[in-house]
Amino acid sequence: MSEGPVAPSMTSLMEGYYVVRLLDAFHHEGLIERLSAGATVDDISNERGYAPARLAALLDYLSVRSDVVRKTAAGYFVDMADPETRFALHLLDQYAGAYGPCLNSVPEILSGRVDGAALVDQARHAAAFACADRDRVDEDLLRLLAELRVDALVDLGCSVAGLLIEYALRHPQARGIGVDSSPSAIAAAQRRIAENGLSERLRVVRGDLRQVGALLGPDERNVVQCVVATNVANSFFGDDDGAQIDGWFAALRSAFPSRIMLLGDYFGSLSQPLDDPVACVRGLFHDVAQVLSGQGVPPCNLVQWSDILVRNGCTPIRAFEGNGGDMRRFIVLLQL
Question: In the CATH scheme, what architecture does the domain 137-335 have?
């Protein structure tokens, strides 16, 4: 039998829990940013009324058991220019911040007394992708858009508009519209678009991704050459009969008939045998976050995704598989 992910010891799990809780508390309170700006233990203690010895003890621990906090002869420091540090903060914002409230309400979610989706902290979710988008824009998607010579696109689930901005900066003729349901993400996207001088070519709209046809006017929809949706489709598997994902594709085909689409997402791990060696650790706990937040577990391979596309009248053209961000991912080029 093949070996899947190795289960860590309970001691390791408990230590990881403490490290994450401490880092998230420091991050949420702005202390990580203060350390990155050169603040000392005394500076922070004076500003916040903290006990210096206790603060130093916790920072000592984090410097030994994480890569985020570093201890030098001059004191404690966080290197915000380090991509790995920013990725760590992305994970904190996403899993401890955005999905953390769901973990605090497991019995209520399981019993149906609470809707897990309503507990997700949308501001922290937007912050997670604002941090990640600084240096993790999907180069494969950018290359495919360029190869397809796309000049007008709509990005569904655009988050903070990282893909739109980068593509517009590289291709002066490109125009695009982003759609996202998060007010925090839309606000950040508008700010970033303006900062990059792209307000004439890019705009973002807040709304339900299942109703994109109503969010954009006929003239806007008609000029769209390509629909992009990454890390979006995985949210439509909270039911057992496939009605959510089928309804979404029906809405897309109605709004953008016969248009090409780039669909990118991750493969679920809990929907396959857990002794499979390709089951990724992050994929497993992301699946758990999806279950708790009512999004469900997406398909585990391209065959299952192709079945969904075909039954919804879509035509798969090309498909790519790989790993990214510690998860198994794919991109499918299809015709709606």
Answer: 3-Layer(aba) Sandwich (3.40)
Helices (H) and strands (E) in the chain, counts: 17, 9
Tokens coding 90: 């992305």
Q: Whose CA is closest to 24, among 160, 169, 121?
A: 121
Instruction: Specify the pLDDT at position 1.
Output: 39
Instruction: Give the helix/strand (H/E) hosting 168.
Output: helix 162-170
**Domain boundaries, given as residue ranges, for the chain:** 10-117, 137-335
pLDDT score at 164: 96
Low-confidence residues of the chain: pLDDT under 50: 1-2, 134-135, 277
* pTM assigned to the model: 0.86
Q: Are 318 and 332 in contact (CB under 8 A)?
A: yes
CATH of domain 10-117: 1.10.10
Q: Which helix (H) or strand (E) holds 123?
A: helix 122-132
Q: For residue 196, what are its two tokens? A: 């990059």
Q: At what angle do helices 122-132 and 83-91 cross, to 10 degrees?
A: 160
The whole-number pLDDT of residue 2 equals 46
